[in-house]
Amino acid sequence: MTAHTKTQLDFSAAIGTAMAMMREPTNTVFDAGNCPVRDVFSHIGDKWASLILQTLGLRPHRFGELKRAIPDISQAMLTGTLRSLQRDGLVDREVFPTQPPSVEYRLTELGQSLLGPVAALVVWTAEHHGRIREARVLYDAENPPAKKKVAAA
User: Fold this and answer.
1) Which of 7-21, 63-77, 103-117 is the least confident region?
2) Which pTM does this prediction carry?
3) Which PROSITE patterns match (predicted)?
């Protein structure tokens, strides 16, 4: 079995579980405070978290290496996202007793288990990005932005 096939099977199983949950709507599924999808996606669903996860999936990185690997992320956003991923148990932070101290970030076992689904999304995005951009152009052509009304003086 190839890694791609395993990813597809893992994803199919996850979708099946999610669909089963949706067939039996409960407060756990739709309640913002209890919905596992909302809870987790609010942390891993943004562009910075996915880029950090992909980068750390290659190998452990020090903070500066992560900053260089993702050049358009601010230092504050990188720090905050790393803390969030660490809080969720997806990333480990190791401080080395050097002068000055150096810190290395790596994926935990839980974080590594997320790489398959993230990779599937990356592959899907690469395959369909052109079609999405075309759809946006068509939509924008058919739905021009509303002109702002000028207030009477």
Assistant:
1) 7-21
2) 0.71
3) HTH_HXLR (PS51118)
